[in-house]
Design a protein that fits this description.
By secondary structure, the protein is an alpha/beta fold. The protein folds into 3 domains: about 5-135, 3-Layer(aba) Sandwich (Rossmann fold), CATH 3.40.50; about 145-310, Rossmann fold (3-Layer(aba) Sandwich), CATH 3.40.50.300; about 315-440, Helicase, Ruva Protein, domain 3 (Orthogonal Bundle). The chain has 19 helices and 14 strands. The chain has a 5-stranded parallel beta sheet, with helices on both faces. Strands 7-8-11-6-12 form a 5-stranded parallel beta sheet. The chain is globular, with a radius of gyration of 25 Å. InterPro entries: AAA+_ATPase, AAA_lid_NorR, CheY-like_superfamily, Homeodomain-like_sf, HTH_Fis, P-loop_NTPase, Sig_transdc_resp-reg_receiver, Sigma_54_int. Pfam families: AAA_lid_14, HTH_8, Response_reg, Sigma54_activat.
């Protein structure tokens, strides 16, 4: 008997299109126009997979997902959330609530051909997750819909409720601490403390006391007892930033603390701690292990769940949403980007990554006197070559290098033609429709122009 797929969407055309594609792939298709119809269908049919719209008038997809996974028979049918409005908040929440995947419309036949077999193979009983706050109350901190950022959001949703150690890697300024704070905030330890410690900013002779604490009189100047970051973060999360800059002697002590969940204050006795560790570094720790600069056993202890944050130049689709977000935060009333300003931002290489972009938008909010930001307001963005392949982690990856070059050429052509796509296409020697598709891919969309 063929597997049965339930399609839930309040738009008839989308339901019909998906059901036709599902049947073409050899599956049985059931349809529901609302959340209540979906729950009724699930109660009376044996389902093998569910394609579930996020936004519906009577009951949203996350509510339906929660009820499906709380069914009395304890069976969790795999559910893929589909939406035209993907955000970090609903992506993370969907994955934490047990969604198999979170997809952005439109969903094509090839997408279904890849997705449905994996969903049907994965069906297994799971315990229902704990309740979450409403999505409306979820702070939107992980802005971005590029493939790289979407994978980061999904991983956060999957790992948040566990105590697994997470290692976040990426260039300086990519937002590693934002990811760490999000893991803590949405996870099971969200009500506990979050402690952040920059291992590179503390002298080696003071780092042990900062991490593990000390007792009164343990050394000259220790006039009071200090708990240290591990004990301050008890029942919560300890974020160890730039852990790759820690010396080998301290690495050994950190390894013991991670293995045994026991810390020894300077001059004191061992004490147990209950803390989740999230570490981050801009270093290539695997290379440092080979060079003897980082302990191999500590690397594997930290690298339980790796999360890689791509540099901003490699996720160009996120540049303009981030810029608009930071501009809205920094200006009141909110300033808007002109076409030329948007193209200037999208064409910049952002060596300082998201941190540089945020600083740029804060500067514009203060210095630009108009409600519309023109390209001339971004004159301080000095063109700079992208880091070489060894530095940015491409390892000579040709497709990535070609994409960056293509995006820069298109942005330059659009800026020189003042947003006239026909003229830009002529300058580039390509068809206008191809330019339109490439501009959409790289986030070089239309924006308001200055008066």
């Amino acid at each position: 008997m063929n597997a049965t797929v339930l399609i839930v969407d309040d738009e008839k055309n989308l339901r019909d299109g998906l059901s036709e594609a599902v049947r073409d792939l050899g599956y049985e298709a059931l349809v529901a126009a609302s959340g209540r119809e979906a729950l009724a269908a699930a109660a009376t049919n044996k389902l093998d997979a569910v394609l579930l719209d996020l936004r519906m008038p009577d009951m949203d997809g996350l509510q339906v997902l929660t009820r499906l996974h709380a069914a009395a028979d304890g069976t969790n049918v795999p559910v893929a959330i589909i939406t035209a409005y993907a955000t970090a908040a609903n992506t993370i929440e969907a994955m934490r609530l047990g969604a198999f995947d979170h997809l952005t419309k439109p969903i094509g036949r090839e997408d279904l051909a890849s997705l449905l077999p994996r969903m049907i193979r994965s069906r297994a009983p799971k315990s229902p997750p704990r309740d979450l706050p409403d999505a409306d109350g979820f702070p939107e901190t992980l802005i971005g819909s590029s493939p790289g950022m979407r994978e980061v959001q999904k991983t956060i949703g999957l790992v948040a409720d566990s105590d697994a150690t997470v290692l976040i890697t990426g260039e300086t300024g990519t937002g590693k601490e934002v990811v760490a704070r999000t893991i803590h905030r949405v996870g099971a330890r969200g009500n506990g403390p979050f402690m952040a410690l920059n291992c590179a900013a503390i002298p080696p002779d003071l780092l042990e006391s900062e991490l593990f604490g000390h007792v009164k009189g343990a050394f000259t100047g220790a006039i009071i007892e200090r708990k240290g970051a591990f004990r301050e973060a008890d029942s919560g999360t300890l974020f160890l930033d730039e852990i790759g800059d820690m010396d080998l002697a301290m690495q050994a002590k950190i390894l013991r603390a991670l293995q045994e969940r026991v810390v020894t204050p300077v001059g004191g006795k061992p004490q147990k701690v209950d803390v989740r560790i999230v570490a981050a570094t801009h270093r290539d720790l695997e290379q440092w292990v080979k060079q003897g600069r980082f302990r191999e056993d500590l690397f594997y202890r930290l690298n339980v769940v790796p999360i890689e944050l791509k540099p901003l130049r490699e996720r160009t689709a996120d540049i303009l949403p981030l810029a608009e977000h930071f501009l809205a935060m920094a200006s009141s009333p909110t300033k808007q980007l002109s076409d030329e300003a948007a193209q200037r931002l999208a064409g910049h290489t952002w060596p300082g990554n998201v941190r540089e972009l945020r600083n740029a938008m804060e500067r514009v909010a203060v210095m630009c006197r108009s409600d519309i930001v023109a390209a001339s307001d971004l004159g301080f963005l000095v063109a700079s070559p992208a880091p070489n392949a060894e530095e940015d982690g491409d390892d000579g990856n040709l497709p990535s290098a070609l994409e960056r070059l293509e995006r820069r050429l298109i942005a330059d052509a659009l800026a020189e033609s003042k947003g006239n796509r026909a003229e830009a296409a002529r300058r580039l020697g390509i068809h206008r429709q191809l330019l339109h598709a490439k501009a959409e891919k790289y986030g070089l969309g239309k924006r308001k122009n200055p008066d």
